[in-house]
Design a protein that fits this description.
mainly beta; Immunoglobulin-like; 4-stranded antiparallel β-sheet; 3-stranded antiparallel β-sheet; 1 helix; 7 strands
């Protein structure tokens, strides 16, 4: 099965959801990484970095392609998705 090399970019851009903040003190990002056919992609490393503070957090998508990065301080972030065999995808300017 041929998988598109840019599927991570498409998946990240289409699946990012900003979670409601609890009392406006924290925020989070959650989503599911899939290929062009809708199949889940496990083992994708996602790194989110706060542009103002340079603090970063990392997680790996589970067997269903699901990931979550929670308890983030409000601010502007850059989210990067990486997996061997796929082109790295980066989404800049995420406001949480």
């Amino acid at each position: 099965m041929k998988l598109s090399r840019n599927l991570l970019c498409t998946a990240v851009l289409l699946t990012i959801c900003i979670l409601p903040a609890s009392a406006q003190t924290t925020a989070g990002v959650t989503g599911t990484i899939t290929d062009d056919s809708g199949a889940a992609i496990p083992g994708v490393t996602l790194t989110i970095r706060n542009v103002e503070t340079s603090l970063q957090r990392e997680t790996v998508s589970d067997e269903s392609g699901f990931y979550q990065l929670l308890l983030l301080q409000p601010g502007t972030y850059t989210l990067t998705a990486k997996k061997t065999g796929f082109r790295q995808a980066t989404r800049e300017g995420l406001r949480l």
